[in-house]
Amino acid sequence: MPKKQSTAAKRARPAAREGEKFTAALRREQRPAAPAAYSYVPLDEAGDDHVWARVVEDCPRCLCHAARVCADGLWHRASRPAHVDGAPYAGLCPCEERAKAPEPRRLTLTFKGVTRTLEAEYHRHGMMRGRLRVLGHPFHGAPDDGSAPGRCGMVLNPSTVMRTARDDHGDTWLGHTRASVGGRPATITGWWSDEALEA
Q1: Bridge partners of residue 38, in order along the sequence
Q2: How confident is the model over 90-147, as pLDDT tens digits?
Q3: C-alpha to C-alpha distance for 81 and 89, rounded to whole angstroms
């Protein structure tokens, strides 16, 4: 004869099933994207031997890199491209050359309870790749060595969790309080005075 179950146990079973469904859905979301397609490439006079080669889509804006290299800005990691006959390309990659020029953006930033709209530059190349730099030095920076404070800028990293700023492209950013005043490491303590901004 089956044992009688309590009301709490009966209620717990549907909740557990819902929890399993939620966990399964979460796993599906966290699953990495499907791998790129692979294509069968036979070797000449190799009989039954064959290789599986990854299908690489060429960049539509240049002849020297794959699409993923130019889309993700990975020129520094890509090998130097060459023609089919093995001769290296003589010219520079046009996609990389375009990316060297920073992209201007308008940034709405809240710092110390004050919100302002600022000019900024988004970098797609070099050490600042993927970051946003505020122009005009609108912040007050206190150097770590105790010397006189001065004006400084700010560098922001992309962030979807902690957001202190949003630009005109809809991207959200997280600002940092570390900066440089005259080449000296400093901490951003607030906005520079309105009088100094107008000067």
Answers
A1: 54
A2: 778 888 888 888 999 999 999 988 999 999 999 988 888 889 999 999 999 999 999 9
A3: 7
- What contacts 118, CB < 8 A, 6 or more positions away? 106, 107, 108, 109, 134, 135, 136, 138
- Per the rule left: phi > 0, alpha: psi between -120 and 50, beta: everything else, 73 is left
CA distance 153 to 187: 11
What's the one-letter identity of residue 161? V
Q: Please identify which residue in the block is written with the tokens 């966290």.
A: 30
Strand ranges in 55-154 using DSSP code E only, listed in sequence order: 103-111, 114-122, 132-134, 139-143, 150-152
154: amino acid identity, one letter: M
pLDDT digits (tens, 9 = 90+) for 18-54: 666 656 655 665 555 544 444 444 445 545 555 555 5
Count CB neighbours of 141 within 10 A.
26
Of 119, 82, 84, 78, which Cα lies nearest the Cα of 102? 119
Q: Which of 39, 72, 43, 41 is nearest to 56 (CA)?
A: 39
Angle at 148 between CA 144 and CA 153, to 5 degrees: 70
DSSP string covering 127-178: TTTT-EEESS--EEEEETTS---EEE--EEEE-SSS-SEEETTS-EEEE-SE
Interatomic CA distance for residues 98 and 152, integer angstroms: 28
